[in-house]
Amino acid sequence: MTQQPRNGRAPSVKDVAAAAGVSLGTVSNVLNRPAVVSTATRERVERAMADLGFVRNESARQLRAGTSRALAYVMLDGGNPFFQDVAEGIEIAADAADLSLFVCNSGGRAERESRHLDRLVQQRVQGILITPVDPDAPHLAEIARRGTPFVMVDRLSTAGGHCSVAVDDVLGGRIAVEHLIDRGHERVAFVGGPGSVGQVRERCQGAREVWEEFGRPAEDLIHLPTEALTVGEGRSAGERLAGLPSRRRPTAAFCANDLLALGLLQHAVSAGLRVPDDLAIVGFDDIDFAAAAAVPLTSVRQPRQELGRTAARLVLDEAANPDHRHEQATFVPALVARASTGAVRR
Amino acid sequence: MTQQPRNGRAPSVKDVAAAAGVSLGTVSNVLNRPAVVSTATRERVERAMADLGFVRNESARQLRAGTSRALAYVMLDGGNPFFQDVAEGIEIAADAADLSLFVCNSGGRAERESRHLDRLVQQRVQGILITPVDPDAPHLAEIARRGTPFVMVDRLSTAGGHCSVAVDDVLGGRIAVEHLIDRGHERVAFVGGPGSVGQVRERCQGAREVWEEFGRPAEDLIHLPTEALTVGEGRSAGERLAGLPSRRRPTAAFCANDLLALGLLQHAVSAGLRVPDDLAIVGFDDIDFAAAAAVPLTSVRQPRQELGRTAARLVLDEAANPDHRHEQATFVPALVARASTGAVRR
DNA sequence: CGAGGTGGTTGAAATGTTTCATTCGTGGTG
DNA sequence: CACCACGAATGAAACATTTCAACCACCTCG
């Protein structure tokens, strides 16, 4: 804990070597192969490091090693707790592998995503996990071409030039709507958009499929489009829903994610609709706030942390294992029934 | 966009130089001082870079420059949207300065925080923003001693050896409780804990101060302690509150943050209490979910993004400006009145 | 006594970039 | 024609680390 007067430059291995009276190679050995150096010198070196307040310079290590000790996750929407939970899963895995994790947020904007990716490639991160704005964007293909391992999260790979980790969204849509049919609803709204988001399309498709299979008329599954997957958009969908003529008004809504569902719920309550009696609601993702809503939300649960952990595992395998095979990991979503569909006595 | 066959190594300036038939110094000039190189050669070099798919190696730059082009934010609780918003503000500032941002999450665990800090110092980040688990922890002092600029976020510095950015939490507590007194409440609960969290202590103190100033008996301000600032703890506080004998049961609760308030709200609603008629609730932070709750939450607003932006500004100043003066930036919180205190007709 | 091994240490090379003093060539000026 | 100035390009050094072949005592065994 003693300390040389700050001379403006952080002490390097060279300084440590000088202070301990050994060669620079020996210091490096103490750092990387403590076993090969004799106890006496090792202690001397360690003491010198402590005295000088030596800290390894990671950039120099990287330069030499050719790759950094970091992983990156570029998430689609930092404001959505779902992605935070995925990130948490990734961080756990990164931590276990003793890697740093860059968490970036594209906020749904392709140009911001692309800037992040550029920086990450420059940093020579070991791998990139990404929930992309557009899975077919050229800058993604570019990454793959460069050879940086990358894994798509929450989106199944179409091309197959890389790993991906996702939940079966079509199945999720089916489960949700089947639950509503089960509970006797005959007119149901699907709330979600924009259609450019694959997750929305697939959840909607699942809903449609099951609706048809039960022989329900297509016009009784009403699509309420939204411009984003946010609470605000959920509220506005609520307004439109409340404005429908009662003849057409659905008795239940399946929302493409929980944020929409919470917004819808809020508007419904404040408009005096009783949930679930006047309007049942199913969300998607099962974020913590879903259970915490004033009327706890029925939702389709995704294994959020596990999604992240698996993605990290795959990207690490790709980085380390020369004969890595790309993998498309699919998880099965599950319905969590709560009060918002009357599945639980309040 | 043409591309040499991958020979296993990413192309370097040297390769570009060879391909363009110029010296390595010239390539560097094209990269860093395009003005000094003639148009003809510049174009030749740029073409070579594109052909080879050249990407600057950030570690080598760093090594040479002695510092990285990155900032870091170590947040206290990634699950709390408040910190996400602060992070968003920081990211905006980092982006403007063309810096990468490491976002780390200590999750309230000192040992995890310390591991993150170690890594960040090794990376030679330009500066560290942190909402610490314990502002007096020795590893923080250590950072300062090493000379890495750092700024405390959402926590005022006591020692003053560094900048800090925070909201006046005592004032926030005062505002909240004053609002409740205004609305005629005579028995109020303060919900929050643990006491080791400075923010909680100060918000509580503000509440007490104003309560006394209005001449209210101390025993009518009831402290309901919690073990964390989470929705779950809010629910459990709700149970305890509901269990109080009606003689002592408060008609209003001031929660140390919005997560607690949402949990409390949820339990209250499911226990059949009407909010705000049977129980008024005030939260703290004004996260987006507060407005989105089924009974929109009255809350004490902090300028979340601005907190982040300011913190980033300060740390950048400290990194760049040799005669930087440490600054304690304090923001003024503001009450946002909503339905949960009956301040707005539903 | 010499050969061979061994545990410990060393020195040099290599990683990719930036900087800076130097050199080169050319065109203008006295 | 000699000199200078100037724009353009160059080459070497420096940054902090890791690796690896070489080396050095010293010991053991034949």
Descriptive keywords:
346 residues; alpha/beta; 434 Repressor (Amino-terminal Domain); Rossmann fold; 3 domains; six-stranded parallel beta sheet; elongated; DNA-binding; transcription (chains A, B); DNA-binding (chains A, B); HTH_LacI (chains A, B); Lambda_DNA-bd_dom_sf (chains A, B); DNA-binding transcription factor activity (chains A, B)
Question: Can you describe this structure?
Answer:
- The structure is a homodimer of 346-residue chains.
- Chain A is of the alpha/beta class and 346 residues long.
- Chain A has three domains: 13-56, 434 Repressor (Amino-terminal Domain) (Orthogonal Bundle), CATH 1.10.260; 68-167 and 304-331, Response regulator (Rossmann fold); 169-303 and 335-341, Rossmann fold, CATH 3.40.50.
- Chain A has 13 helices and twelve strands.
- The first copy, chain A, has helices at 13-20, 24-32, 39-52, 58-65, 81-96, 110-122, 138-146, 169-182, 198-213, 231-243, 258-270, 288-292, 304-320; strands at 70-75, 100-105, 127-130, 150-153, 163-167, 188-191, 221-224, 252-255, 280-285, 298-301, 328-331, 334-336.
- In chain A, the strands form two sheets. Chain A has a six-stranded parallel beta sheet with strand order 2-1-3-4-5-11, sandwiched between helices. In chain A, strands 7-6-8-9-10-12 form a six-stranded mixed beta sheet, sandwiched between helices.
- In chain A, helix 8 (169-182) crosses helix 9 (198-213) and helix 10 (231-243) packs across helix 11.
- The longest helix of chain A has 17 residues, at 304-320.
- The radius of gyration of chain A is 26 Å and the shape is elongated.
- The interface between A and B is large, with 58 and 57 residues.
- Chain A binds a DNA duplex (30 and 30 nucleotides) through helix 2 and helix 4.
- Chains A, B: GO terms for molecular function: DNA-binding transcription factor activity; transcription cis-regulatory region binding.
